[in-house]
Amino acid sequence: MPAVAAHLESAGHAAVTDAARVVLARVRQEIAAGRLDENGVALALDGLEDAIGRELRRLMQASLRRVINATGVVLHTNLGRAPLAESALDHVRSIAGGFSNLEYQVNSGERGKRDVHVQRLFAQLLGHDAGSAGEAERSSTVSTVVVNNNAAAVLLALNTLAEGGEVIVSRGELVEIGGSFRVPEVMAKSGAVLREVGTTNRTRVSDYTNAINERTRLLLRVHRSNFEIVGFTEQASLDELVRVGRDRGLPVMEDLGSGALLDLRTVGIAGEQGVANSLRAGVDVVTYSGDKLLGGPQAGILSGRPDLIARIRQNPLFRALRVDKLTYAALEATLLAYLRQDYDAVPALRMMRLSAAEIGARAEAIAGQVRALPPATAGRAHLRIEVCDGESVTGGGAAPAATLPTRLLALTSEHSADDLAAQLRTNDPPIVARVEDGRVLLDLRTVFPAQDDLIVAALRGIAK
Ligand SMILES: *Cc1c(COP(=O)(O)O)cnc(C)c1O
Questions:
Q1: 308 CA distance to ligand 1 centroid (A)?
Q2: Which of 49-63, 175-189, 280-294 has the lowest mean pLDDT?
Q3: Is residue 451 packed enough to be buried (19+ CB in 10 Å), middle (13-18) or exposed (0-12)?
Q4: What tens digit of pLDDT does each residue of 83-99 get?
Q5: pLDDT-based confidence at 132, cuts 50/70/90?
Q6: 225 in ligand 1 pocket by Cβ < 6 Å?
Q7: How far is the CA of 177 from the centre of ligand 1 (A)?
Q8: Is the Cβ atom of 181 under 6 angstroms away from ligand 1?
């Protein structure tokens, strides 16, 4: 069949053959099951070329696809968290597409270590506002290593610092993060024993000091990434915990989760401690994600006291959890953007910094273009489109209660909001929106401006 042969060049012999076999097997099955009469058989055979073409397209399509994130959740774990900066993509392309000095010292020609590549940048960024120490002294006070994700970072730190001993944690911080990261379960796998203290809503410093015994190895603070405890509450301050740690000779570790390198107050988010804050308070090891507020690739980062980080680096688990050149390349380029203070180069930060007015102007423009369609024709869905106030959230386990004011495109039609949202997901690329109070809400905060036209086209498609 010429139409089938035409696919050979682009898809290759094996894939075309596979597609043809799948389609033929399906038709045979239909015939054998008696589901096709003579007419049906003729139709099926006539449609073979098209069916094989469709099957081939399905076969050759990547499973990972781009989607348009119109949810307004900046760090959406289900949608891949932080989009990478252009400079990170460029660096990944140049490093990963060839050979590199990943573990090679070009000067001496000797073998090197992969974890040196981002160490200097972290030291510089975390040193900047770390008080009055001199430049050299500051850089030497913070060491950093990188592993596959923050769950791995927590596992590695607990295993290194507390295997066979006890780790004291407040009952108010025994969190579960989406994707089944549960502190008690990670603790058990690390070989450390969880020692819960305090109550769900109140934990005092004395709860920690009373629980310390000869088996205690570590005091752990875990960020309440996705919930808040309000009302009659008390939490020992970081300063108090650090003081207890110093007094009793125990390291203090903080699982910060999101781990901002930027002071988030500049984007209107209060109450989110940055990594530098924790280190300045005297926390010995901080763990955080690369693809949450940092806005880089998936990674787990451990920053802290050089002697403890050195022990962590020597743990054989570190070898098992290490990251590859793609991650180092993307992370390094992202950190360089921070060093240049070019925060708008990092998409997650840029999106958080957008004002409601900027977002509203784009929403009005889209609404205007969709409304400008020719008068209603028969069968056209009555798509009502409004622009209204709303709220975006950062997501990714940062500042759970903090929201950013935004302007939303609100859609209603004679179909249900769920049907309308499902229709948007059939777009190519799929548009993922929120459904609230019987309306479909599109928040352009998380939509790249270059995608606005795709949204116009999709909405026009629905309205016509
Ligand atoms: C997100 C988060 C984790 C898990 O981090 P991953 O990078 O997703 O593995 C662990 N702890 C806290 C407090 C978090 O917010």
A1: 21
A2: 175-189
A3: middle
A4: 999 999 999 999 999 99
A5: very low
A6: yes
A7: 6
A8: yes
